[in-house]
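pasting for ref. prot 1 ->
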Amino acid sequence: MEVESIKGDILKLDTEIRSLMDRMAEADDVVFAYIQQRIKELHSRKSELERKLQTKARKRKAIDTKPLVEPLAMWDTLTVQEKHDVAAEMIEVVYISHLSEDIEIKFGI
């Protein structure tokens, strides 16, 4: 139930962010600065909620680390490509925020 509530809050924040972004084209300098600050605040709250959601999902998901044990044990001897392949195995997606300079990594394991 809490997961659905968080998802609903994220959707509301997305809607408000989109609405503010639509208004930016018509805004003067003062209003533009206010909208930009508000979007930054909303995005920050959205990121917090997404992290909370991710934590809840991770608690329910069993993590199979067996495929990573050997490569991580010999990390210093791997080639750059092999390290890239291990990282690609672990990381599902990377989000980079243009508004708040945040980087969020979603792990696939």
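and prot 2 ->
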Amino acid sequence: MPHHVLEITLTRRATQAELACAARVMPLAANHDATRLMTVAKAKNPDRALSRAHHRLKELLPLDVLATHYPAPDGHVLLNIAFSPTADAFIRGAAEQMGQSPRVFLQQTIHRALARNARQEAERLDHALQALLAHTTPDQLLASEGPRSFRTGTQ
């Protein structure tokens, strides 16, 4: 059975006592402020590893999001999110209105949000570049970065 690397985001900083209890259940490595953890879970697939980690840790830590750290063979990163009852009801209702399962609804919603974010970031960078070019002469650009780039052939 393969091992899967999982990243755990907490809703707040974990106490030393919480970390100690959780570490007895699964091996954990915490970041500097104990709000994010890494673990390795043995399971047949990443989805089962997420479920197993969530089941073992849900009573011990203030879990927010569990995610596979490396993409699955299909290129997807899996998430396991514990929604509040209100959020869960909203998602289920919205999914039902769209004729989809909650999983498919969330997947498509996240994909659309990521695509929108990528478009907005590209537009932001384009505007920043246009502003830079509008207020900078070619000589200023060459003086700031040109000689080193031309000399080494790198940027």
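The longest strand covers residues 3-10.
The chain has a mean pLDDT of 85.
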